[in-house]
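Lrp/AsnC family transcriptional regulator: structure, please.
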Amino acid sequence: MNIDNLNWKILRCLQQNARQSNAEIGRQVGITSPAVSERIKKMEDLGIIQNHITLISPFEVGYQLKALITLQAFMGKLKPFLEKVKTFDEVVNCYRITGNENIVMEVILKNQKHLESFIDQLIVYGECKTQIILSHVVKNNAIKKL
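Here you go.
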């Protein structure tokens, strides 16, 4: 599907607020609500729009720490780790990366003691490095037309 300028405008609206109505999006982009609905459905079917999610503030629900943890897997431990990481409630995002480390995870934790026990679970799979996140500089930035 060719993502035309109108579809990009719809995507921009959805990235700003996915809860706004198709009628509201239509007013912003200059088409009818049914036309917006049809375009959104087509973009969902093609995998351009993948999810409609609610972002929750970890701090407001009791998590005091947010961290990035990289892991350089020990020989033979990467595949088992790739399965295990899916079971950790602390992991918000996990990426397999190039470079010296194999994995980078974004995690949320209750406190330093929780961080320590979480790292204890990881070190059987490889060498870990942790960076505490102080604040977001850019957060969920909209994807724009190339």
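Notes: Strands lie at 65-73, 91-96, 103-109, 126-132.
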